[in-house]
Amino acid sequence: MFLRIVLGIVFFAHGAQIALGWFGGSGFDETVRYFERNLGIPPFLATLTILSEFLGGIGLIAGLLSRIAALGILVDMAVAVAMVHLPNGFFMNWYGNQHGEGFEYHLLVMAIAITVIVRGAGALSLDRVLDSKLEGGRTLEIRMEPQPTR
């Protein structure tokens, strides 16, 4: 649960930068233009990236559709590594002496996303509430009746 919420906060903030222009970000239109001009990513896929980060962050914070949100972020980070960060090596540009950022951050995000996908949202989540409502609060009970011997 803790990993899900932290990942959600990070991606909500980053998604708000690229979707809404909050926190010093460029906003939706400029982000789509940048993705298309500089990275060769079509507007539709750029829009999916923005939505996966912004809405995925919200979903992870609330614990709503957490596995889907984590999958979107996982794919987003894998594409970012493959298209942008892999040529820059492993390390982030901590000292400003390389061309761009490496992929160490993305690797951590992908590991956290995989954890959420595998383990689910956790106890304090809307996913858990919806699961219990859909099941009607019932649990599956299996009875083993003794079989008659011959």
Description:
The longest helix is centred in the middle third of the chain and has 20 residues, at 43-62. It is built from six helices and no strands. It is mostly helical and 150 residues long. The chain is elongated and about 80 Å long. The chain has one domain. The chain has helices at 2-20, 27-39, 43-62, 66-85, 104-119, 126-134. 65% of the residues lie in helices and 0% in strands.
Poorly predicted sequence stretches spanning 5 or more consecutive residues? none
Total helix count? 6
By secondary-structure content and strand pairing, the structural class works out as mainly alpha
Helix content: 55-70%
Counting structural domains, the number is 1
The proportion of residues in beta strands is under 5%
SS elements, strand count: 0
List the secondary-structure elements in sequence, H or E. HHHHHH
Mean pLDDT: 91
Give the CA-CA distance, first to last residue: 52 Å
Q: Based on CA inertia axes, which overall geometry fits?
A: elongated
List the helices and strands and how they pair.
Blueprint: H1 2-20, H2 27-39, H3 43-62, H4 66-85, H5 104-119, H6 126-134
Helix pairs in contact: 1-2, 1-3, 2-3, 3-4, 4-5
Using brief descriptors, characterize the structure shown:
single chain, 6 helices, 150 residues, elongated, mainly alpha
Give a quick summary of the entry.
This protein is mainly α and 150 residues long.
